Amino acid sequence: IKRIVYSTYQAVSGAGMEGISDLENGLKGLSPKKFPYPIAGNCLPHIDVFLENGYTKEVIKMIKETKKILHNNNLKITATTVRVPVLNSHSESINIELEKPFELDDVIELFKNTKGLTVYDNIKEIKYPTALMVSGKDDVFVGRIRRDFSVNNGLNLWVVADNIRKGAALNAVQIAELLIRSDK
C-alpha cells in the first residue's frame, strides 16, 4: 500500500448517551449539550478536540493506529472524521493507492472470501451498505468497490459497520491488512 485516504462518518452513539440525547433533543428543536452545533439535520466535520496543526485528536489517533497495525511508519495516510445524525453504525469512504497493479475482480473475490466481511455491492440494483442495514450485525459491510481513475492502482470503497460491535478505524485497517497479505 502506497497511500490511504479515509473519511469516517460516525454515528452519534459513538459519542455516548450525550450524543444520542443531542440528536433526539435536536429533532425537538432543543439546543445541543454535547456537540458545538446541532447534530439533527447536520454533519460536524470534527470528532474530539482540534490540535494546533488543524487536525483533531481522533484523526491523529486513527493515523497512528493504522501505521502501527500495518507496521509501516512511512505509510502516507490522511483522514477526516465527521459526526453524522445517525443513531448507530459508522460509515467510511476509503481510498487506497496500491504500489502494484491489481484486478478489481480479484479484490472483490478476496473480500468475499474473508470471514467477517460481507460484500454488498451491485450498482445495477442500487445495492450498497447503509447504517440502518448493518446495525446489529457483526460483519463489516463493503460496497461501492471501484477503481480510482485519478491515480495508478487506486481503489475506492464504502465500508459500514455497527460501531457498537466494531470501531471505525479498525475497519479501514483490517481491509488494508487484507490487501497487504494478499499482495494486491
Automatic annotation (TrEMBL):
Enzyme nomenclature, EC number: 1.2.1.11
Homology family: Belongs to the aspartate-semialdehyde dehydrogenase family.
Name the record gives this protein: Aspartate-semialdehyde dehydrogenase
Any one biological process term the GO annotation gives: amino acid biosynthetic process
GO molecular function: aspartate-semialdehyde dehydrogenase activity; protein dimerization activity
Lineage: Bacteria, Bacillati, Bacillota, Clostridia, Eubacteriales
Origin species: Clostridium perfringens
Ranges of residues in domain Semialdehyde dehydrogenase dimerisation: 1-166
Short name of any one Pfam family annotated for the protein: Semialdhyde_dhC
Keywords from the UniProt entry: Oxidoreductase
Entry-linked InterPro entries: Semialdhyde_DH_dimer_dom
